[in-house]
Amino acid sequence: MLINCAAYQKGRKIADIPVDKISSYIARGDCFVWVALKDAEPAELDVMRQEFGLHELAVEDAHHGHQSPKVEEYGSSMFIVVKTVELVEGALQVGELDIFIGENYVLSVRSHSHQDFLGVRARAEREPHLLSHGPAFVVYALMDAVVDRYFPVIEALEAELEEIEDRMFEQASERSNIERLYQLKRKVTVLKHVVSPLMESAGKLFGGRVPPLFEHSQNYFRDVYDHLYRINNSIEAIRDTVNTAIQVNLSMVAIDESVVNKRLAAWAAIFAVATAFAGIWGMNFKAMPELDWKYGYPTALVLMTTVCGYLYIRFRKARWL
Amino acid sequence: MLINCAAYQKGRKIADIPVDKISSYIARGDCFVWVALKDAEPAELDVMRQEFGLHELAVEDAHHGHQSPKVEEYGSSMFIVVKTVELVEGALQVGELDIFIGENYVLSVRSHSHQDFLGVRARAEREPHLLSHGPAFVVYALMDAVVDRYFPVIEALEAELEEIEDRMFEQASERSNIERLYQLKRKVTVLKHVVSPLMESAGKLFGGRVPPLFEHSQNYFRDVYDHLYRINNSIEAIRDTVNTAIQVNLSMVAIDESVVNKRLAAWAAIFAVATAFAGIWGMNFKAMPELDWKYGYPTALVLMTTVCGYLYIRFRKARWL
Amino acid sequence: MLINCAAYQKGRKIADIPVDKISSYIARGDCFVWVALKDAEPAELDVMRQEFGLHELAVEDAHHGHQSPKVEEYGSSMFIVVKTVELVEGALQVGELDIFIGENYVLSVRSHSHQDFLGVRARAEREPHLLSHGPAFVVYALMDAVVDRYFPVIEALEAELEEIEDRMFEQASERSNIERLYQLKRKVTVLKHVVSPLMESAGKLFGGRVPPLFEHSQNYFRDVYDHLYRINNSIEAIRDTVNTAIQVNLSMVAIDESVVNKRLAAWAAIFAVATAFAGIWGMNFKAMPELDWKYGYPTALVLMTTVCGYLYIRFRKARWL
Amino acid sequence: MLINCAAYQKGRKIADIPVDKISSYIARGDCFVWVALKDAEPAELDVMRQEFGLHELAVEDAHHGHQSPKVEEYGSSMFIVVKTVELVEGALQVGELDIFIGENYVLSVRSHSHQDFLGVRARAEREPHLLSHGPAFVVYALMDAVVDRYFPVIEALEAELEEIEDRMFEQASERSNIERLYQLKRKVTVLKHVVSPLMESAGKLFGGRVPPLFEHSQNYFRDVYDHLYRINNSIEAIRDTVNTAIQVNLSMVAIDESVVNKRLAAWAAIFAVATAFAGIWGMNFKAMPELDWKYGYPTALVLMTTVCGYLYIRFRKARWL
Amino acid sequence: MLINCAAYQKGRKIADIPVDKISSYIARGDCFVWVALKDAEPAELDVMRQEFGLHELAVEDAHHGHQSPKVEEYGSSMFIVVKTVELVEGALQVGELDIFIGENYVLSVRSHSHQDFLGVRARAEREPHLLSHGPAFVVYALMDAVVDRYFPVIEALEAELEEIEDRMFEQASERSNIERLYQLKRKVTVLKHVVSPLMESAGKLFGGRVPPLFEHSQNYFRDVYDHLYRINNSIEAIRDTVNTAIQVNLSMVAIDESVVNKRLAAWAAIFAVATAFAGIWGMNFKAMPELDWKYGYPTALVLMTTVCGYLYIRFRKARWL
């Protein structure tokens, strides 16, 4: 679906243009065209391919989707894939933003994502001195918008981790802790595969040999890279912590178990003693003088209570009870 | 076994040719020869070695099979090994496709694989403008076909992982979960050794210093590389998740165990109390006044029931029962 | 908040200057300006941006804070971020020091940190021969001060690790051990993300291609790098040891558990034997001759004691008791 | 001990020569000398050092043995260390083959190894067209022979792993499984330190900057490298799998344990119920009407059996029994 | 404390010289000065700094100690830090050897180490042809001496590991095994941080771009590097094995536990059966015909023994007992 199709000159929009005029505007050379599609149909992509003169392989990638984040040069034009990430009811939803860039055009194709980039265009149009840098700035603005939305996702995952941690040290044997840790790990793994190749790719857009289109906007892409670097560090930290937490949870379960076992052992011992005594005086020997004593029974009860009480105190001290 | 042997000019097949004409067609210089063998006998390979002038070491590799995926230059010709992968009744079956490439020939030798590449040839012959790129395009088409068939394998493994996950959180102590995780890990390890060296090798076919034969098809091989990169990422994700799942399963077993232990402890305690009471009133002391009471027995039963009931409720609250 | 704003010439302070004179002093070219801010307001940063002619993106970073440590070049000027670390009541508190450097100025902005750097300025002013090296030396002095304060933090963490270790081998099942190990791991992870990117960045300030501003102070930055390298090694060692300790703790819990289980098993066996004997002689068969023996009862007691004593000794030998 | 000492010209042996003629044959320049020693004495090595003009440090290495595999250049001559590996009664036996190479000589010194290399010499002498390549080909033939013998070792380890796997899922608690896994891991670690540095070194003998002696035999050393690469991959796979197997075995033990525990719990519960009932009717209260019933006893037995039977069925259903 | 201070010419000592003559001997240019200090006081270091013209930062490092191993260039002079390692009563004691090297001097400062290097000097003086290489050879001799003393430490750690292994498979639950493994891991971690940075640094003293002082002694430093490489491999192998051993030990504890649990379960079952029978015949029902049988009691005993014996045999077969 076509979202937007406009031509810009010196940082200002000169016109919303129809799709079939794109190639002529591109040919003018004194302006650039910025087109935004959403969940594009093959037919739409084909029109774009012809108007912009895009490379077949790049268009095919955009068509199939499910690409890894990447930055590819096709001669003097480029093809960039970034992934959008949203948390929808606790689940991670991954979309895709494919960007085709040439000397005087930018074409963005968004798929499987609720996020829109109208705000990016609006902000860009309010700052003509920046937009006048041309397509490279548009790409920066789009990537920056995508990457900025990673931060709340990371924060949500960190918050979840902290919540699990708090419960872990209170209720280690709670089945849900471990299941949530596992789910968290899976989310972080997904996120890692979204962020890490993008960071790697972004690292090629500044310093060293840079594609000519981005030569004058290196500081901006270094900024994007910095954000990705921080996000990547956070991801690594969460991953590492989750791994540790899983191990620690196992230890906590073992300790819980051990506490229960000790308590069981202690009470079992106390009652076994009582039962053994009762068993002995329950024997049917004829000659058991104490059975005939007047205070035999209370004495026996006192004796049993004393022994059991003594054990109880000892177990208490040993912290088994 | 010879599958196919044909000469192509400007992207079109000019003739199916007999094996002993190969060298003369190659010598013409205005066409290229594309030969496909399957489970080749040493004698067949020897004929090919002479007709194409292949390097002894490469032929030996093709003869022995069980090579790692690789891309090797022998002077101006090249030798490429890729592995085919199929899931046959849940088991991973690994075959091999050895490709010899020269300026005007391609020889592919397939072993231990049910997959055929007739479709690749048919498609290539339908697109003369692509096939006219010569051997490099044929190699791309073959590699692309092999790599495309990795995706369903990956998806099958991911599906299996998800199935195990679902059961893991329900029936942690199921012996089969852990065995299936282990088998999954082994399959992924096999797959990794199929994909990862190929990715590394494919990375040398575009960007930087590229073998002359592939100089004009770099975009295509970058496409193959991208696919391998994604597959490799998926493999890494599965590996990592399986490792975590094995640990998590252990935790779940420990939690299950702990639940059973608590329940055992609770019931043992309840019955130990009842038995201890019964034991006491089963003693044979002469002077045990309560034994002579009219309602001694029901009182005792009520008392025992009350104490046991109290314990039951307490254990319930503590969630041991 | 402005802490300090002074101009230096040949290593000596020539004047405390008002903020609005900064640009004119910078323009003189024969002196340099050293300004220190603390928890700067956006307005203050904006003034600085204008006076020093700072790059927008760097100022934005300083404004937002929460950057990763880094060293960035903006044309001939530079932007450096280092993190300060303090242990406040056992918790790790991370602050930030942003440094803007130009040919004849240094601007430092400190946030979220109780540490001040007045000592750095005082020491620098006492050593004009060093301060005469200009901004690069100031940056070195600041970084050195920050990094020096990492050492006591590392030592505190190492001390805590040793304390946990001592308790771990005595009281493995202590819940607090594992919780403390976990917290220690988290602190070390935080510290790692403070130190490791800084080390990486510092590594670019000496040897190989060095930013022109730092060309003559490479030995100093290598010294900072060395310190960071040692700290990083210590962090790695702690991380590794904590991981091992968590596993070892689990083993110790399992061993403790096993000791308790053996003891439980042993006592249970002993009392079960006694109870079984008592049960047998408690049966109501008419014809049980031993019940009528004169010394039946003491004989029975002796027999039971003997068997139980024998078991006790055997378990002792097997080290179950 | 001297094994062989011969001079070769144009790929053919021209003479077995005495040790003291070596230097004069080397000086001729139109032939090369190939000497093989076994478990060389210091005195023998010293003679060789003088005849061949070897570097002191290389000779010292050969004398001490226990080197890591390596490829070292000493001016125009080279020193190569490879390790031989044999499985002797299940144990890994590591020997060493030190090779000194010059423009027209090869000296190999074998230690602690039952493998001999007479076959290599015989085969080389049968193929004069290859042997005429000179020392580089001899080195290739020796290395190839050593590396070829790694394959059966790897296969033996893989077979052992599979055997352990089979037993692991049947008899997890078998002490020997875990011990064998541990021993397997150790063997693999030894093998890794044999193969991995050699692979690294072999990687320097082709492609990029190659020692002049090997310039014309790069394809051969790439072949050796390929073999080592595959072996290394197999080693990594075994290592990884053993690690997983150790964890999986622990899980299997825990599951076994849990099965036993459940069964124990179930039977304990059933007997505790029976005992409690018996205890109650064993009490000595005067007024226990059911004791006087004619069918009291059989009723009691039926009741006890019914309750126990009910429990048995329930536990069966819950799969505790 | 000054240990030695001498001047050498053409590999021979020409004089023991007083400290205040050092600078004049250095200035001569035809000889070199070799000074050795031990646990140097700040004042001594200051004298050396002036006599040799050392760089302030290097002297400060030597003064503070606790450096990581490193090789640093200060203009044409160099500063090298290596760590000495001794096993004193099973504990690892780490000392430091700081070496300052110039074109015609070597100054070594040893701290916290019982090892002396008089042997190095004596050996060097006995081999004038080597010593005539000048300071670089002295540095090699010192480093070689330090590194040679790592080997016995490694061997001691390997021996300890083997001892623990032997006990581990016999007495898994021995608390000391796991504690010793942990201590071993810590020692190896310390050793790693001693060896690994030194190896890295030594790697810069041969091949590629080498500091001019060492240009003619590259083969020697490659030899040191080789030793460090082997030691490093051994360290990695021990680390890896200790990690595995910790896991294996946990498995062994779990298996031991499981053996004990099975035995407990078996005996508990046997006695529970006996007790249940006894309980039944201990009930006070009037009408229990078997109680009045003449051989009721022995029959009962036989029955109980038979059932228990049957269980015993079954458990034996199932290998629970």
UniProtKB/TrEMBL annotation, chains A, B, C, D, E:
UniProt KW keywords: Cell membrane, Ion transport, Magnesium, Membrane, Transmembrane, Transmembrane helix, Transport
GO molecular function: cobalt ion binding; cobalt ion transmembrane transporter activity; magnesium ion binding; magnesium ion transmembrane transporter activity
Main location: membrane
Reactions catalysed, as given in the entry: Mg(2+)(in) = Mg(2+)(out)
Classification via InterPro entries: CorA_cytoplasmic_dom, CorA_TM1_TM2, Mg/Co-transport_prot_CorA, MgTranspt_CorA/ZnTranspt_ZntB
Localisation per UniProt entry: Cell membrane; Membrane
Listed transmembrane segments: 264-283, 295-313
GO CC annotation terms, alphabetical: plasma membrane
Domain of life: Bacteria
Topology versus the membrane: Multi-pass membrane protein
Family: Belongs to the CorA metal ion transporter (MIT) (TC 1.A.35) family.
Role this protein plays: Mediates influx of magnesium ions. Alternates between open and closed states. Activated by low cytoplasmic Mg(2+) levels. Inactive when cytoplasmic Mg(2+) levels are high.
Protein name per the record: Magnesium transport protein CorA
Originating organism: Noviherbaspirillum sedimenti
Gene giving rise to this polypeptide: corA
